[in-house]
Amino acid sequence: MRPTKNICCIGAGYVGGPTMSVIAQKNPSIKVTCVDLNESRIKAWNNENLDNLPIYEPGLAEVVAEARGRNLFFSTDVDKAIDEADMIFISVNTPTKTYGEGKGMAADLKYIELCARQIARVATNDKIIVEKSTLPVRTAEAVKSILDHTGNGVNFQILSNPEFLAEGTAIQDLQNADRVLIGGENTEDGKLAMQELVNIYASWLPKDRILTTNVWSSELSKLVANAFLAQRVSSINAISELCEVTEADVQEVAKAIGKDSRIGPKFLNASVGFGGSCFQKDILNLVYISKSLGLNEVADYWEQVIIMNDHQKNRFARKIVKTLYNTVADKKIAFLGWAFKKDTNDTRESAAIYIAEKLLHEQANITIYDPKVKEHQIFSDLEYLGTLDPEIIKQRVRVVNDPYLAMDQAHAIAILTEWDEFITYDWRRVYDKMVKPAFVFDGRGITDGLNLEKYDFQVFRLGKSITTNKG
Ligand SMILES: NC(=O)C1=CN([C@@H]2O[C@H](COP(=O)(O)OP(=O)(O)OC[C@H]3O[C@@H](n4cnc5c(N)ncnc54)[C@H](O)[C@@H]3O)[C@@H](O)[C@H]2O)C=CC1
Ligand SMILES: O=C(O)[C@H]1O[C@H](OP(=O)(O)OP(=O)(O)OC[C@H]2O[C@@H](n3ccc(=O)[nH]c3=O)[C@H](O)[C@@H]2O)[C@H](O)[C@@H](O)[C@@H]1O
């Protein structure tokens, strides 16, 4: 096996872009080319102005500035990059299927299959294929079958190398990963291929953080890691509802249980519901796999994490309507935040979309401010739901670049993303300009230290009792 000199990554999205940037930064002697079919995305990756990169991620621009043009390249010429590469990462999207068998649950693997077929058609020398996308367990079998049956005598080694970065902290997560997982075949060639990939990560990570396993454990571990993380959020969110009716305080409960080193303090922030492109998709996939194997109790167990998450989003929207005297019709509701979490411009499956949907069905007017999400994205998220009349969206939704404008003359504010800047606002000024009583619905637990009640705001905080919430 030749030492890896040339890497290609198919898919320049939230995973491919940052991951390849860090691999290139840390391995200056390896040429890394990230390719994508999406021309405007590649154009943005190549934009001279680093503020215009297609993805907002703290620290990303600096890494791109260091490596781009040196050993990091972004291109739409997929065939050329495949042909030149010793190692090919597949980092394309694997969304939930929207059609046919497994609709609404199974992962849609059509993009993966297209990549495998393209590699098989173009490759003329031996290559290591790395599954970076999140895939159902045993997908490597299908990828290998396509490569072996349509290829031209070329040998392929398939590795599974799932990505564990979280958006908003992607660069930090890549540069200082808790672990890197590499699954491969237990054969001489399989071990050599794994070693090639270990070497790439070992250029910046300690060896004991690089785990090697069989392919199936690696594929399954990715789904399981996301399922466990999401389960923690649903667990604390379930407790938040209980706190609201028992005068317990969810933040105090989270702190108290998190101090137990067996439980740990992370991922215990009660919220308006988890979002993002992966938790829901990956759990549904796990549920689908379990069901397909006849493991109904296993499937039901994990599905409950999603049911709880839907409940949390619904009850937050209902709380707004109920508190505003059972009607939000023609009232102005200001949204602070649209992204699914802070420090990212990604809005996929963001809870804000579903809260907006419910309030629009109740004929509310919504004005949205998010520091990093663009207006066209917000409108496209709402239209994509397919449940709202496009005319209603146009009439009732406004997106603004100034948070004070969003809150001016509002009946209520809904805090849906935990952006740091929200707590720096002049809340006296906000209060003065709102319709009274001025309501705040804090879906992220960020207003505790602000004592908004001193300005006479009526505040609802998730997971706080009625008494704490002052009615
Ligand atoms: N977003 C995240 O935080 C994480 C995502 N993942 C997984 O990584 C995978 C990719 O996710 P994202 O980067 O978020 O998706 P994304 O949608 O941001 O990027 C995927 C890119 O692949 C491109 N693409 C699709 N088919 C192609 C083809 N045949 N040739 C060339 N380009 C093609 C698309 O145009 C798109 O730009 C998914 O399987 C996801 O589950 C894993 C860990 C974290
Ligand atoms: O496979 C993936 O895509 C990735 O999914 C998650 O990362 P991500 O979705 O980017 O972001 P998280 O930080 O996990 O947050 C997910 C959602 O849970 C919410 N959350 C998180 C933590 C918490 O305590 N409470 C809470 O409501 C966040 O606000 C967000 O809406 C995992 O954390 C990553 O390890 C994984 O690689």
Topology:
Elements: E1 6-10, H1 16-26, E2 31-35, H2 39-45, H3 60-67, E3 72-75, H4 78-84, E4 87-90, H5 110-122, E5 127-131, H6 139-150, E6 156-160, H7 170-175, E7 180-184, H8 188-202, E8 210-214, H9 215-244, H10 250-258, H11 279-292, H12 296-323, E9 332-336, H13 351-361, E10 365-369, H14 375-385, H15 390-396, E11 397-399, H16 403-407, E12 412-415, H17 427-433, E13 439-442, E14 458-461
Parallel strand pairs: 1-2, 1-4, 2-3, 4-5, 5-6, 7-8, 9-10, 9-12, 10-11, 12-13, 13-14
Helix pairs in contact: 1-3, 5-6, 9-11, 9-12, 11-12, 12-13
This protein binds 1,4-dihydronicotinamide adenine dinucleotide and uridine-5'-diphosphate-glucuronic acid.
Residues 134, 163-167, 226, 229, 233, 267-269, 271, 274-276, 278-279, 340-341 line the site of uridine-5'-diphosphate-glucuronic acid (UGA).
Structure description:
With 471 residues, the chain is α/β, with parallel strands linked by helices. It has two domains: 6-205, NAD(P)-binding Rossmann-like Domain (Rossmann fold, 3-Layer(aba) Sandwich); 214-471, Rossmann fold. Helices cover 43% and strands 13% of the residues. β5 (127-131), α6 (139-150) and β6 form a beta-alpha-beta unit. The N and C termini lie far apart (69 Å). The mean pLDDT is 96. Its EC number is 1.1.1.22. This is UDP-glucose 6-dehydrogenase.
